[in-house]
Amino acid sequence: MTSRAPQDTRGSWKTYLSLSVALLLSAFPLYWMFVIATSTDEALGKYPPVLIPSDQFMVNLEEVFTLQNVYFAASLINSVIVATVVTASTLFFCSLAGFAFAKLRFKGRNPLMFVVILTLTVPNQLGVVALYILMGKLEWNGTLLAVIAPGLVSAFGVFYMRQFIDHAVPGELVEASRIDGASTMRVYWSIVLPAIRPALAVLGLLTFVATWNEFQWPLITLGGTEYPTSMVALSDLASGNFVIFRRVLAGAFVATVPLLLLLLIGGRQIVRGIMEGAVK
Fold this sequence. Notes:
mainly alpha
């Protein structure tokens, strides 16, 4: 038999050029936001527009953090608390439910999974009124509990974990652990969780970003309070008859930094989770 020469998987210069252009176009809004955040009011009115960052970033940032009607620092802390709790809860409950739907046999499993998938087709806006009434009955409106509770588990997370566990964890391995006397929670903790770490990284990133950027529900339940989340605080910065864009974009840049750090720290694990479809 004749052995085939290994194929060259490197892309052409056109591929790299296209990727470079796409990267520049994707990063330009973030760069432009930083340029405006470092500029003065006079620089915003110049034509052609200024493309070089100035030296006013700390001045603009100090104005953002010292505004008495926004409490931007407290809003960032609230966003960190909400996003962290919701992400941790989603990873635990969704992976546990995904394991049950993928590997456990119980009555009504398929109809329940169908109901979970069906909820993905329902817009979140349809449940806002009922959710607000429910939070009012619990006396949680105006508190972080009202923002955290609805996001403790997600239908997408359950479906995603179910699909990943079904392919990544062999059924024979689960049966073998059962024969050895392992309980259901021991199988979940010792076998399932190590196998789905890449998927957990992907779901964790998506959940954290979505929770951090959530605006509608925090605005409804926290809009009248002194310490809302960061997105609601940014809307307060942009409200009024005269909007100072250098302040708004300075606050927006600071609110974007945690997401960029999260992507830099867990980028490799996230890419691995997207590409992996089975356990090695």
